[in-house]
Amino acid sequence: MMMEFTLWDIVRNLLTGLEWTVGLSLTAFILGGIVGVLVLSARIGRFLWLRKLMKGYIELFQGTPLLMQLFLVFFGISLMGVDVPAWLAAAIGLTLFTSAYLAEIWRGCVEAIPKGQWEASSSLAMSWVEQMRYVVLPQALRIAIAPTVGFSVQVVKGTSVASIIGFAELTKTGGMLANATFKPFLVFGLVALGYFILCYPLSHFAMRLERKYRGSGAH
Amino acid sequence: MAYAFDFAAVWEYRGQLATGALHTLGLITVGAGLGVSLGTFGAVSRAWKIKPFDKIFTVYVELIRNTPFLVQLFFIFFGLPALGVKLGEWQAAIIAMVINLGAYSTEIIRAGIQAIPRGQIEAASSLAMTRPQIFRHIVLRPALQKVWPALSSQIVIVMLGSSVCSQISAEELTYAANFIQSRNFRAFETYITVAIMYLILSFCVRGLLNRFGSRYISGRKTA
């Protein structure tokens, strides 16, 4: 039996997909941020082997396709005999991906703080943690905000790749609807619109933040 | 009962992997060439406010940068035939990559062009350089020189992104991986091999772009 889809049916289903996209993006961004802080502290910390290891971690995620990372998480965990649902594999994969990129972005921000400030604070007998807490981070955080918000757009767009491992977010829902309705032009147009509605405000906000912090002349 | 890895099952298919890698390289070569050209045109239109292209490119850049590549690809491959535009999988993949990279490189190159001091262009024209000469030597080359690292990174990102072209059955590297794991049932070994191949590809492409940049863009012509 053929089922007739009205425009509202299509939009309603896409909105459900959109919710999953938002959920996955938020999960990946928040958890990725937390893991990213850990990666960053190892990346700029005092142990050389840990710094090298994290450099490798970042290069691994920046040098391979997100799709491969998701496949590897998906099939890698099932090797251990645990069946992973697509959403979990997608969340883990995107979290790791996000953590690597955020750690690299933040490293740039920390390194933008002039070396003299490290030397000055260390001559005041501050420990590494104190230097970070009172001197470096307050300044680095200010320059980190704009690129971090900018990267969130990449995370939202990245979630579309999770459709390939079978997670029914916006793109996957769109694919199924396009097949069921024979209206791929309309459906994928609406899917694109959905992503645009999520991403455009974020991009715009990132751009405004960038202007604001650059305009203030401060670091 | 530890899992026994079997990479021999992947090695059997080395021919497919090599072909896939070559196809991926082919895609990014054509995609980068056309995409950066489109981006240069867009950047000039936007930086110098050439009507009506500046407005068109502004909208285009925002539309492309705020939607996922996969959706752009599906829209082109599945959506456009509804308008009577039928495309093969390679054509769709190339077009999607060019459109995607075109948008990012418009923004990247525009930043380079806007960083050229106005005085240099005035100085060049006071030396009786023609407009095409000024454009080539005073604007484009220094602009590309400034943004070459960013542009190279973006090209590598687009190459990695091209792995989703497997979804419209363009037979590139990821397609080869999917095919192989459906034959040998060794998904993890296959994907880790292919991931390493991508890693090598991105190192090579980045290296080639660096050399290309220092030779043809920032390098001076020596006899």
What do these coordinates show?
The complex is a heterodimer of chains A (219) and B (223). Chain A has 219 residues and is an all-alpha fold. Helices cover 80% and strands 0% of the residues of chain A. Chain A has eight helices and no strands. Chain A is elongated. The N and C termini of chain A lie far apart (64 Å). The model of chain A has no long low-confidence stretch (mean pLDDT 92). With 223 residues, chain B is mainly alpha-helical. Chain B contains nine helices and no strands. Chain B has helices at 8-11, 14-47, 53-65, 69-79, 89-114, 118-126, 131-161, 173-184, 187-217. Chain B is elongated, with a radius of gyration of 21 Å. Chains A and B meet through α3, α6, α7 and α8 of A and α3, α4, α7 and α9 of B.
Order of helices and strands of chain A, N to C?
Answer: HHHHHHHH
For the largest beta-sheet of chain B, the strand count, sense and barrel status come to:
none
End-to-end separation of chain B: 67 Å
Strand content of chain A: under 5%
Amount of beta strand of chain B = under 5%
Number of strands of chain B: 0
Cα-based radius of gyration of chain B, to the nearest Å: 21 Å
Output mean pLDDT of chain A. Answer: 92
